[in-house]
Amino acid sequence: MTIIFLVGFMGSGKTSIGCELAAYLEYQFVDLDNLITKEANTTINEIFAQYGEAHFRQLEHKMLKNIIKCQNTVVALGGGTYIEQKNRKLIKKSGISIWLQCELAVILSRLANDSSRPLNRNPQQMQKLLESRLIIYQQTDFQIDITNLTIQDAVKQIKELITA
Questions:
Q1: Domain 3-153 belongs to what architecture?
Q2: How far is it, in rounded angstroms, from Cα 110 to Cα 113?
Q3: Helix and strand element counts for the chain (H, E)
Q4: 111 within 8 A of 11, measured Cβ to Cβ
Q5: pTM for this prediction
Q6: Per-residue pLDDT reduced to its tens digit, 58-101
Q7: What does the alpha-carbon distance between residue 127 and residue 94 come to, in Å, rounded to a whole number?
Q8: Domain parsing of the chain, residue ranges
Q9: What DSSP letter does each residue of 134-154 carry, written as one string?
């Protein structure tokens, strides 16, 4: 195993947990959304506003194709990355996927003052979006409920999953 892909809804902790997991495993860490904003030289909100979600998803796929060339890497995917079948195929061929499940109430509290996410509009819309993604997130190789875990406890559980 050379690439660990962290899957989950926005605000589920993929970046925070991914940084710690990479440090623990002595892997490099990549945040897909950060790569996209560097490549596009603008924010995700601006990409959505100027070019639309479809364009953003194309950039996302392009960057994912570059990432899969890496080794010994933990990747925090964007919340919608795993939804695209072509991305799931790349991920399946390239490493393991772990869904970081988190209750919506916790996610909403984490995102309460975060205006950087174009799909974060209101609690009802977030509920519908999460529900629409659950069946796809369940296709990951592993799942852990991180709702009540510290970052360190989540890393420990992931370590146990991937070394079992």
A1: 3-Layer(aba) Sandwich (3.40)
A2: 8
A3: 8, 5
A4: yes
A5: 0.89
A6: 999 999 999 999 999 999 999 889 999 999 999 999 999 999 99
A7: 31
A8: 3-153
A9: HHHHTTSSEEEE-TT--HHHH
